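Hi there,

I know you've been waiting on this one. I reran it after we fixed the sequence typo, so this is the corrected version. Both the input and the resulting structure follow.
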Amino acid sequence: MVLTRQNKDSQSNPEEEYTALLRSLRWTEGFGLLFVQCSPAEGSRIIDQVRQDLPQKQVEVLSIKDPIENLYDLVDALPNKDDIDVLFIQGIEHSLYDYEKTQLWENPSDHYTYSEKNVPRLLGHLNLSRERFRDHFKICFVFLVPLFAFKYLVRRAPDFFDWRSGVLRFRTDPQTVAQESLKLYGDYKEYLTWTQAERNNRILDIQNYLEELDQTRDKASLLLQQGNVFTASNEYKEAIASYDEALKHKPNQDAAWYNRGFALGNLERYEEAIASYDEALKHKPNQDAAWYNRGIALRNLERYEEAIASYDEALKINPNDANTFYNKACCYGLQGQVELAIATLKQAIDLNPKYREMAKTDAAFDRVRGDGCSAVPEG
């Protein structure tokens, strides 16, 4: 049975789509190939429902959590492969991460303009192995894929995809998609504690929902999260591309401007970082972290007076921040303003004694020590 392929923009009826899927699974004997475009949560619901509605079929799930290059061997290694009637496959998007990441920052406005290089190996292998799947497995394969992964299959694995016996599209209602996407919101400090694999998986989870979200505001927030995950992985180019996309949807998003400045600073693109902090401060003038990091960028450009002025703005908002006092003292030290350097350093030490030891070896105070003065005030 051949099912009608759904147009991306058509309004599919979930009940009708599920009925068509169930009918195809019920009638298919032996090898079959179905593609179901859906969100991860929707995919789990489909699997549970099929198991209830087709008790006579042996239904199994192959959940892929890590990148793979060879799906055939993975299926062949299943101990009960000869008994399986329907095999749902989830998670092939994890094997597209490296290529997807490259597209995100090389072609941020259209990361489906696929080049011929860096084609995911899994998709190349699927193209070459389609006859082996048909000849060796008497299984109906059902690929559950998000929209971005579905596009990869269509464009980068056309030989394999053309053997499809059906394509269905399950559109989750916008409110449910928005609610589900909230589960992907996290804290940057938490991201720092994750493994790289965990961060990669979160990026893919975010991609799963970006295409489904209808609200511009929701997309901006999710793109901000994506940028934060990239930043936690020190993948600053990708982070900047994500923040830029977020700002297209919500130009006044101060967090995106601030985090963009942070990423630019880590790439030593200090002038651009300052401009980004300035935009953040237009929308949120009382953000002491933006003033502070703006000062750091200015100091790296050796624009010490401007850096000091930026630190002063930060201290108006957060007058007990020892780190800001210390960096301000460094600027005075680099200028050779001995008395101001020592007085400001004392303020930092009074708030946090750790700066006493730091100052003893900090090159910023070399000129102060060279003036015959102790760069570290006594307590």
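Quick highlight: Residues 1-11, 108-117 have pLDDT under 50 and may be disordered.

Best,
R. S.
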